[in-house]
Amino acid sequence: MIYPIYVYGMPVLRKVAKEVPKDYENLPQLAEDMFKTMYRAEGVGLAAPQIGLSLRMFVIDIEILADDEHPEFKGAKRVFVNPEIIEMGDELKAQDEGCLSLPGISESVKRATMVRVKYFDENWNEHEEVFTGFFAKAVQHEYEHLDGKLFIDNISPVRRTMNRGRLQAMLKGKINCRYSVKTV
Q: Where are the beta strands (DSSP E) in 45-180?
C-alpha cells in the first residue's frame, strides 16, 4: 500500500510519537509499505508520522545513491523501530536538506557527522550501529520526526522567514509535487 505523505501543518508531524508495541500487527508489512511510499515520492527516508502514524519508526534507503564515489551506500537500507540515539559525534557538517513533508523547501542544516543508534528492525531483532556521513544525517533527520520536529526548526530565523510564503501555501493546501499528499 502506498500512503499519502502528510505535509507541513498536519498535527501528527508536531507530536512526540509513541513507542511501537511488541504486539504491533503486521510490522513487516508496514515497513514494506513505508519503503514503497518513500520510493514513489523519490525520497531516501520516511518516518511513520509522515504517513499519519504516531509511531517511533522510520525507514531509510540510501543505496540508490551508491556509485564509484560512494560505495559505502551499498546495503544502506534499514528499518528503525523504537530507535534511540545513544551517542552523537562532536563534529558538525552543514549540508542541504529537504523533506517529503515540506515539498519544495531545501535548506542547509548542521548535523553531527556520526551517530550511534540502538534500534529494532521490523522482525524485532535488536541492533546497535554507528552511522557516519550522509547516513548519519538521514538518521538524525528522520529521528527528529519522531520527536515532533522538522528540519526547518534547525535553520536560522531569517531563513525561516524567507520560507514563510511556501509554508503558508502548504497550510492552504497549495502544493505542487509528484506524489500524493495529505494536507490540513
A: 45-47, 57-61, 77-88, 92-97, 107-112, 114-120, 126-132
- Rounded to whole angstroms, the Cα distance separating 155 from 146 reads 18
Q: Of the residues 97, 107, 142, 144, which is catalytic? A: 142
What domains are there in the chain, each with its CATH number?
A: 5-182 (3.90.45.10)
Pairing of strands 5-6, 181-182: parallel
What amino acid is encoded at 91 in this protein? E
Q: What is the pTM of this model?
A: 0.94
For 51-98, the pLDDT digits (tens) are 999 999 999 998 877 777 777 777 789 999 999 999 999 999 999 999
Annotation marks residue 84 as catalytic: no
Name the one residue in this structure whose C-alpha cell is 529537504.
Answer: 98
